[in-house]
Amino acid sequence: MAIDHHKDIENGIEKGLDDLQKPLIQQAKCVDSEGDDVIVSEKNGSIGMVLISTLVAVCGSFEFGSCVGYSAPSQSAIRQDLKLSLPEYSMFGSIITIGAMIGAITSGKIADLIGRKGAMRTSSAFCITGWLLVYFSKEAWSLDIGRFSTGYGIGIFSFVVPIFIAEIAPKNLRGGLATLNQLMIVCGASTAYLLGTVVTWRTLALTGLLPCVFLLVGLFFIPESPRWLAKMGLEKEFELALRKLRGRDADVSQESADIQASIDALQYFPKARIFDLFNRKYTRAVIIGVGLMVFQQFGGINGIGFYASETFVAAGFSSGKLGTIAYAIIQVPITVVGAILMDKLGRRPLLMTSASGTFLGSFLAGASFFLKGQGLLLEWVPVLAVSGVLVYIASFSIGMGAVPWVIMSEIFPIHMKGLAGSLVVLVNWSGAWAVSYTFNFLMSWSSTGTFMIYAGFCALTVLFVVKIVPETKGKTLEQIQASINS
């Protein structure tokens, strides 16, 4: 019976932001031991603390975006002020992903040991330290240490923020609130792009401190994840946290029992080992999860995103500011559209549409550099370059940015999620490092060739989705996993 309760929580139906207008707790159906529906009447609760807690947590997501977006508008100024060579700046731009890889690998242990709030505090401390090192830097080595430190911090954020939101949200709001994580990452990156066009690179580094400060202050006023407290055996704290999240007038007895049952059910699952990932029953899920992350990264997103400003200059603009501003503005509304469409159109259509659009964007950008190299239609070169990059970013934002993470959370069984998720996150950050580090070298070799390579990976993404990736919209986790195994 404990396992059944656990699955019910795990497979709660996720709904969109429209559900924020509905009462948090309504009359609910549950199933008795004989399988008959029983109506359970509960008092209306409050979503106020859930919303506040989510807004505090996504300050970490905003910080994530700020760190990632920092290098694009600051490249030329940092290289000029500190006399950095291209390899030195490429190391600075990409070392954040190395820190993030290590942060992602250790994040699960940290979040389990000191709690979700403790993990967010740890992450904030690393980010604050990193930004201060960048601000006071006089040499390349201090820049790199600072960038690595912020990378480690956002590696933890990339794991713990969505986990925390999922664990505090009632199941009827989980889908809508979960979209705020990706949206705030995009907002953070866009803000860094925009601010970087009007402030110095040192001042821009100081602005990266603000999300961490808001997060650290906010954590004093929100509860810890009730599920983590229950897992740690802190029953009194668990009840207080759950009641604080649901409101004084809410009847939390049923939800409390379900959470306790889900924690008890974990003892029935064997401890996952690394070699279990190669078990035949999990192979296809691993291929799907890893494959989507490989194609997401090797389609070129971090190279194009980290160095957008310099790409526009290389295409013939006197300054990359106008293109960078357009880049920043376009991401946010398109990400909102993608979040709305995810549960309406499904995962596969969004992925195929997104990958097709990134192919077109890469091809247009590559064509612009080809025309420039051949001395043809030179007046069209900057327009094609900006159009290609903006088409790429808009297309990536609507699907390839968020959908791989959603599918990754759906395809693995509960006892394999930690291990398999760590592998998938590691692959993602490894690909991000490889692309961000090699981008400038590839552009020096051949700008046309660079974007055509990315276009090739985008085309392969469409084929991969068509042949391998299942549609997961509207299915329970068991149905998804059964279809993958079949």
Strand and helix map with partners:
Elements: H1 2-10, E1 28-31, E2 37-40, H2 48-69, H3 71-82, H4 86-135, H5 140-168, H6 174-196, H7 201-207, H8 209-218, H9 226-231, H10 235-246, H11 253-265, H12 280-298, H13 301-306, H14 308-314, H15 321-345, H16 347-374, H17 381-400, H18 403-411, H19 417-445, H20 447-467, H21 477-485
Antiparallel strand pairs: 1-2
Q: Number of helical runs?
A: 21
Spans of at least 5 consecutive residues whose pLDDT stays below 50 are 1-44
Summarize the amount of helix as a percent range.
over 70%
* Helix/sheet category: mainly alpha
- Identify the overall geometry: globular
Largest sheet: 2 strands, antiparallel
Strand line-up across the major sheet:
1-2
Number-wise, the strands total 2
Backbone CA Rg: 23 Å
Mean pLDDT: 79
The end-to-end distance, rounded to whole angstroms, is 26 Å
Percent strand equals under 5%
Listing every helix as H and every strand as E from the N terminus to the C terminus, the arrangement reads: HEEHHHHHHHHHHHHHHHHHHHH
Mind explaining what this structure looks like?
- The protein has about 475 residues and is mainly alpha-helical.
- The chain has helices at about 1-10, 50-70, 70-80, 85-135, 140-170, 175-195, 200-205, 210-220, 225-230, 235-245, 255-265, 280-300, 300-305, 310-315, 320-345, 345-375, 380-400, 405-410, 415-445, 445-465, 475-485; strands at about 30, 35-40.
- A two-stranded antiparallel sheet has the order 1-2.
- The radius of gyration is 23 Å and the shape is globular.
- Mean pLDDT is about 80; it is low at about 1-45.
